[in-house]
Amino acid sequence: MSVSDLFKPLTFLHGPVMRNRFMMAPLTSQQSDFDGTASKYDQFWMEQLAQSGYGLIQTSASTVEAGAIAFERQLGIHSDKHLPGLTKMATAIREGGALSAVQLHHAGHRAVPSLGGIPAPASSKTLKDIKAISTEEVERIRDSFIEAAKRAQLAGFDGVSVHGAFGWILSEFLSPNLNDRKDKYGGSVENRARFTIEVIEGIRKACGNNFQIGWRLSIERYGLRLEELREITAKIFDKELIDYLDLALWDSAQLVREGAFQGKTMLSVFTELPRKGVRLGAAGKIMSAQRAGELLDEGCDFVLIARAGILQRDFPLQVKANPMYDSPKLPVTADFLREGGLSERFIETMRGWQTFVKPGS
């Protein structure tokens, strides 16, 4: 395939067609108001992205409950008071020609009490003096994901992306290291995946057949087992429970270092699965037009742009104009980011990313 293939439309099992193969990854910018309301900085960021040529734009991780918070100034979708700001974001994205999705998030055991978070561990051994949440609490959180999806639909978004990565609550339940439960949400692989599947199935039932559902999955750390995640993903593909899988890799080219798939790329472990009508994309150091094009050759249906989109808001337009386009080299100065339109809040968040912002700038 050539870079030009990145500009071909992509259909999904549900909802509208994506105009090209570029998806803006969900980026935590920590620029919302303290109550989770979308700020003027969130709105400006979305307005910039909406004019930048993406096929689908995801919001940052948005809390499905007030106690689910993981970051200061995290976007919220757990209350109707968030609807006006979310509606404005969805409208800006639609007017720019892209599809839209809210990333639904619950921090699980990593919720931060100093920010009002209520840690919700799958296991009693994970956090000192904090018991595992009960079966009823799991079901309440499941229902909060579903209610948040309904709110996203009401705000005018085309879909949601369910955050099942990085040790947050759904990822935590998938991990045999973090989940030693004896109820229907623990034990076997099937039981540990039950929470995720009930969330996805519940959203489909509540939001209908014109609403898109994505699922973000990470493979590393937190005791996650590649073989198990592949098995779970195969079942989700076979049942066509989602519209797209977003593989959150640190590096889209990384290799499996041990186990049955040693030596293969992480990506190939999933692209080789029969996926019926489900679409698959990957994130991870996609910084050039050529790398984005290569990922289609490697079996992706679309690519997720993260750092490259922070450096150059209109990455897809840059690629369209120049098939040899490459992102500016990291680190960059804070002034470079300011000139590109990043808020001071967003820049401060990026200072926490290793080697992104030049020290002292």
Automatic annotation (TrEMBL):
GO terms for molecular function: FMN binding; oxidoreductase activity. Keywords: Flavoprotein, Oxidoreductase. Residues 5-321 form the NADH:flavin oxidoreductase/NADH oxidase N-terminal domain. InterPro entries: Aldolase_TIM, NADH_flavin_oxidoreductase, OxRdtase_FMN_N. This is 2,4-dienoyl-CoA reductase.
